[in-house]
Amino acid sequence: MNLLALSTAEPGCSLAVFHQGQLVYESVWHSRLTHSRRMLAMIAPVFPDQAGFALSDVDGFVAAKGPGSFTGLRIGISTIMGLACAVSKPAAGVSSLDGIAFRFSCADMPVCAMMDARRSQVYCAVYRFDKGQLVHKTAEQVCPPEEALSLAHEPGTLFAGSGALAYQDLIAAHTSGHARLAPPDMHHISAAALARPALSTPDFFTYPANTLAPSYLRHGVRS
Questions:
Q1: Class of 98-186 in CATH
Q2: What span, in angstroms and rounded, lies between the C-alpha atoms of 175 and 77?
C-alpha cells in the first residue's frame, strides 16, 4: 500500500510517505511560518522525485485528526481532503495521540502520550502494546496533568509528547523518579506513526474522504 500521512496538530509539521508498506520519505518541520504557508511547498517536491512514484499512485491519505491546535488541524485535514479528492483516493483521520504513542509500539511498558493543551491541561491517553500490536488504550481526555498522571500509575511508564516535556518536573516528582521520559527528539507527532494503523488494519479506509473531520476533545476553546 502507498500512503501519505500528515500531521499539523501542533506547531511542528510531520509528513511521511510509504511505498508498498515501507517508509520511503519522512520530513519534520519546525518554523514560525503558519501551516497554510508551508503545506503545499512541503508536499510538492516529494512526488515523484523523493517518493519514487506519482501522487496519483497513492492508495490512501492519513491526517492527524486531533486533538491539537484548532487552526492547525483544519489546515492539515483540508489539505489531505483536497489531495484525496483530486486523485479520487480515500482519506482517514488518526488520533494525534496515536502519532506519539505508536512510535513506541515495541516498548514493554505502558506508554502515556501527553500533548500540551495549554491552560494547565494536557490531552492524554495511556497505551499498552504487545510485540508491536496495540492491546489496550484508555479513553482520550483533556485534563490537568496531575489527573493524567493518576491514569499512568504503573511504575516504569514511558511518557512522551509535548505535554510530557512541559510537565517533566511534575512527572518526575509524582513518580519518585521511576517514570521514563522519551528522548528529546521523539516527542513530536510522527506522521510515520500515524500511518501504522492504516498499514496494519485491513479495510482501514472505510469512509470517503469528505467524511474526515477533526476531533478537538475540548470544544469552544481555540489554541
A1: alpha beta
A2: 37
CB atoms under 10 Å from CB of 161, counted, come to: 27
Residue spans in the chain of domains classed CATH 3.30.420.40 = 3-96+189-211, 98-186
pLDDT tens string 6-57: 999 998 889 999 999 999 999 988 765 556 666 777 888 899 999 999 999 9
DSSP string, 69-132: -HHHHHHHHHHHHHHHHHTT--EEEE-TTHHHHGGGTT-SS-EEEEEEEETTEEEEEEEEEETT
Residue 73: name the closest of 82, 81, 64, 84 by CA: 64
Residues ≥6 apart with Cβ < 8 Å to 138: 125, 126, 127, 151
Q: Is the peptide bond before 110 cis (omega within 30 degrees of 0)?
A: no
Does residue 133 contact residue 106 with C-beta atoms inside 8 Å? no
**Residues above pLDDT 70, as percent of the chain:** 93
Residue carrying the nine cell digits 493518576: 150
CATH number of 3-96+189-211: 3.30.420.40
Q: Please state whether 208 falls in left (phi above 0), alpha (psi between -120 and 50) or beta.
A: beta
Contact by Cβ (8 Å): 171, 164: yes
Helix (H) or strand (E) holding 55: none
CA distance 122 to 124: 6
Contact 140, 125 (CB under 8 A): yes
